[in-house]
Amino acid sequence: MAKSFNPRVPKRGRARQVLKRPAHKKKGNWQQVPYVRDLEAQVPPRGDRHAWKRSLVDVVKCSVSSVVSMLRADNLLPRWEGALCPHCRRGTMGTLQSYAGVPKHRCNHWKCLKRINPHHAHPIFVEGTGSGCTPLSTQAAMLMLLLNNVEHAAIHRLLQINHKAIEDMQKRLYQLRASWVLKKEKEIIFGKSQQWADVEADEATFDRMVKGESVEWEQWCGIIQRGQPSTLVLHRLTPPAGKARAPGPGAVRKVEWKPLAKKWLQGRQIILHTDSAKSYKLKVPDVLHDRVVHKKKRVKVGTKFRWIAPKYVEMQRHKVPGSKKVIKCKSGTQIIDRCWKFLKARLNINQHSRVGSQLLKLQLRSAQYEYWRRGQDLWIDTGVLVQWFMASTVQAGG
């Protein structure tokens, strides 16, 4: 049966906002309290107004020599002039000179005299000889397309590159980002920008694998501070195997949530926003907790049953411990829910990236890095990653 039409409520305009339920109730304190209360909240630019330093045209039109200068200017290539020879470890590398039409560096030691490419020992670009060698300019264009999340089949059609070369560069980029994320994630501190900051926590499932009569799940828990995308923290959960027809692994267990809350939230003066999972009810020092109900309920009122709609956002009042101050905020998990959507859009689930596989973990860490740098120039940020990797490699070798 179709819903009844109310001719007194306009279809659009301010009158509809006032008369249409529950919009007419959301005034006063509801409009005065923002969902993100952090004054230093990061607002990423709109996609149609965001421009990177380089475009695909800038990369494609470069010659063999000019592409090296461009990549060096963007910190995507190291400078080997004067560096120790990676082969003999005695001589030093000379300036860039053309050898058989390809720019190379040469060792000045008389027993070595080896020539290396400007992208020697690079974490993303690869070297090669013969027909299987991919020019550096083509690899730079492929990197630009991968940073823009272009499908591998489209890259193959545009650049006429074998799919194995594309997958190899994609995996190298995953590994570089994952190593950076695992190092920088340890430095995240919640509540650093404000006292009693709003932090959201939730869990999500990315894949399932049926083994006989049981099923295994790929489930991760995430914690993020509102207005600070660079504070996203991910932790892989180990839910018990369920039956083959189980709809999901369930919420995070208390035995797994307790060490996470103690590590990231305890003593930070945090207002934690979660869903109605019982594990989140754990009492943590200096943490105020509120929750929302994401499931509609059927209750009996008098002699009739009625459905109560779920509450995704709700006004809350918290009294600060040890004082009379009251903090007004909005409970909900809108930020972390959109984060799960962002991560899932960047995953490629196939026979090589299944539950528990290393490739799936690398993809999630790479997507986590993209979420940290949301709205930033990923081309320049990749140059920062390359410089960090080369510096750490030199320190480890020294």
Topology record:
Blueprint: H1 14-19, H2 29-32, H3 56-60, H4 64-73, E1 97-99, E2 102-106, E3 115-116, H5 136-147, H6 152-159, H7 163-184, E4 197-211, E5 214-225, E6 228-236, E7 242-243, H8 254-264, E8 270-274, E9 287-291, E10 297-301, E11 304-308, E12 314-319, E13 326-331, H9 334-344, H10 358-372, H11 378-397
Parallel strand pairs: 4-8, 8-9
Antiparallel strand pairs: 1-2, 2-3, 4-5, 5-6, 5-7, 10-11, 12-13
Find the structural class using helix and strand composition: alpha+beta
Strand proportion, as a percent range, falls in: 15-25%
Q: Overall mean pLDDT score? A: 89
Number of strands: 13
Radius of gyration: 27 Å
Low-confidence residue ranges: none
Which bin fits the share of residues in helices? 25-40%
Q: What is the total domain count?
A: 2
* Oligomeric form: single chain
Described by the principal axes of the CA atoms, the overall outline is elongated
What characterizes the major β-sheet?
6 strands, mixed
From the N-terminal CA to the C-terminal CA, the straight-line distance is: 77 Å
Count of discrete alpha- or pi-helical segments spanning 4 or more residues? 11
- Taken in chain order, the helices and strands follow as HHHHEEEHHHEEEEHEEEEEEHHH
List keywords for this structure.
alpha+beta; six-stranded mixed sheet; three-stranded antiparallel sheet; 11 helices
Give your account of this protein's structure.
- It is a single chain.
- A hairpin with a 2-residue loop joins strand 10 (297-301) and strand 11.
- It is built from eleven helices and 13 strands.
- It is elongated and about 95 Å long.
- The chain folds into two domains: 53-184 and 382-397, no CATH class; 189-374.
- The strands form four sheets. Strands 4, 5, 6, 7, 8 and 9 form a six-stranded mixed beta sheet that branches.
- Helices cover 31% and strands 20% of the residues.
- With 398 residues, the chain is α+β, with helices and mostly antiparallel strands.
- The mean pLDDT is 89.
